[in-house]
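Thread: Modeling a multi-component assembly for a lab meeting

Hi all, long-time lurker, first post. My supervisor asked me to bring a structural picture of a complex we are working on to next week's group meeting, and I have zero experience with this. I have the sequence lines for every component (642 residues in total). Could someone generate the structure of the whole assembly? Inputs are pasted exactly as I received them:
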Amino acid sequence: MARYLYGLMAEFETPEQILAAAERAHAEGYHRMDTYTPFAVEGLAEAVGFQRGRKLSAIVLCGGLTGCFGGFFMCWWPNVIGYPLNIGGKPWNSWPAFIPITFELTILFSALAALVGMLALNGLPMPYHPVFNAPNFDRASRDRFFLCIEADDPKFDLGGTREFLEGFDPVEVSEVES
Amino acid sequence: MDPVETNNLTAVVETDEVIAPGQTYRSVSDRVSDMVLEWPIGYRWAAGLLLALALLFVLNLALGVVFTIGVGVWGINIPVGWAFAITNFVWWIGIGHAGTLISAFLLLMRQQWRTSINRFAEAMTIFAVACAGMFPLAHMGRPWLFYWLLPYPDTMGTWPQFRSPLVWDVFAVSTYLTVSLIFWYVGLLPDLATLRDRAKKRITKIIYGIVSLGWRGSAVHWSRYEMCSLLLAGLSTPLVVSVHTVVSFDFTIAILPGWHSTIFPPYFVAGAIYSGFAMVLTLAIPLRKYYHLEGFVTMKHLDFMAKVMLATGLVVAYSYIMEAFMSFYSGNPYERYMMMNRMTGPYAKVFWTLIACNLVGPQVLWLRRFRQSAWLLFGVSLVVQTGMWLERFVIIVTSLHRDFLPSSWGMFYPTRWDYMTFLGTLGLFFTLFYLFIRFLPMIAIHELRDLVHKKQEESHAAVH
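Re: Modeling a multi-component assembly
Sure thing. I ran the full set together rather than chain by chain. Output:
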């Protein structure tokens, strides 16, 4: 199988170093890049050019509204239309009694939407990804901070980009093959 | 691996910080994941699991008998139809609440001290809810017909009665279990990736590889991940309050003296947090000792949890006093009789033990000495859990056994099957918990790394 160059991976020791490197790279005009870190470093997503959107919040809102209206309907239809029962002389549409379930289902559907939405937007599960080929990458979930400038970036140039990354004093810069 | 670094970590260090000083990203990652990947199976763990499994078999036996012969093998009767089953249900579900509160509410409040304890507290929640869920199912008598509680178009053309708190309960508890599982799994995701990356055996790598879903720590992923955690925390916080409120509705919607009271929802929620924090302490104190986690679950954590327990205990105490006061102040003879019967009737001993356990005993937590001694705190936590179990027993049995008509009065005497079912769920709980501490990281590793980073920033800021 032919091997392609996925990008150049620079390994850093501290979150401050990688944040500086990513911000600088973005300012230099690199756009196709990502960082891989053992915890969420504040400001890093913005530094690699990610626009913090409202997509996930919107998905969760949709889930919540589905749960809310669906939940109320689930109580209302059976007890008012499908199989009306006189309970203590309460009106058929005794809506306050339907609120607890409406509330619970709102939460349930919101939480499910949050999980599914987060995974879907992140493209997970994805068992294989080229960055796993980078040397030492098992430490991205431990104590090292990785910045990858991808080969399909228009500004990418193997020699120049490598030199650029070396400038930030990384532990190592290596080529990542896909 | 750097041996010096590792040795430092196994040493016992008592500290007043939320994490022992001198930790690095690597040291916390290795320390917590080593407990899963590297540590040999200890005889203490094996003995504990065997004991828990033995109790689990007691549960199998008891439920087997209950299902084949019927719920009549328990001591329940008319008028006391609920007794142990519902006492256990409310007790277990209450215990679960502390886990959600620690993971969700304290996250929203940006409390750093939640970091080392949230993972196993959430595990506790899930296992406690699993135990709780068994009781309403078993108590149905015909548990194979549980799906009658769900709305589906059946051939009889009937639908559930959605004005009933018992139906609300089904939705509240199952939502609670699902959302707790989601929250727990989302929290575990980056840690499972750490285990995948550190595992040496191929099979271990594959298993953790599958469950970690290919997590690679991308900055974009982290951004959405944090948003997701925050949203889940925001959703779980009102959920946890609503669940015990709905549980209390099981009582308050009835007109029985001693149940029909508006103080129940806040009182139940406070009681749930009270017993839940007691359970977190009961689990945390032996865990930190036997796994040498004093540097992560520090005295500061124990101190904070003791204070939460004391505060919620005072809310519970206030509720007891209010409940008694309102019974007399209401001028309702049935309410007044109920309260007199609780204090002086056939179950008076249980009532006064409950008062001693829940109201008097925990007042020692005002003293710093008690909060600073892990084993004294362990003792107090057991007392509180006993007290909270007795509280539910008193609420259920003393109210049911003498209601309006003396001709329908009765007594409840637990049978061996009552005790065996209860002890059996302890077996289920501890079996799950023993397996959890062996196969999953019991502390949230990525949050520890974040905490290490924050502590470093704080110390840098202090220097400059």
